[in-house]
Design goal:
0% helix; seven-stranded mixed beta sheet; mainly beta
Length: 112
């Protein structure tokens, strides 16, 4: 049974940093792409970043240069390092095993 459990969300001031973590289980982690999505209040869920089994990454234009996705295949974990956070980054962030499996999400609030 696939399980994805996010952690690391919280309240941070603009310009600050957070690191999100997703612990994965129930599948052969190292051979699958993984992704982070987010959903802001009143908006549709959007892709933030994706990493394939070889470590190649792609990012939404809005987070390029600020966010970094990475994976640790030994720990079955995918990380999202978020720097230079802006109020518009406020959202629930979801870990995703494309296309069909989702974590419950972790809330990131960027506010002074």
């Amino acid at each position: 049974q696939v399980q994805l459990v996010e952690s690391g969300g919280g309240l941070v001031q603009p310009g600050g940093s957070l690191r999100l973590s997703c612990a994965a289980s129930g599948f052969i982690f190292r051979i699958y792409d993984m992704a982070w999505h987010r959903q802001a209040p009143g908006k549709q869920r959007e892709l933030v970043a994706r990493i394939n089994s070889g470590g190649n990454t792609n990012y939404a234009d809005s987070v390029k240069g600020r966010f970094t996705i990475s994976r640790d295949n030994g720990k079955n974990t995918v990380l999202l390092q978020m720097n230079s956070l802006k109020p518009e980054d406020t959202a629930v962030y979801y870990c995703n095993l494309p296309e069909d499996y989702w974590g419950k999400g972790t809330l990131v609030t960027v506010s002074s």
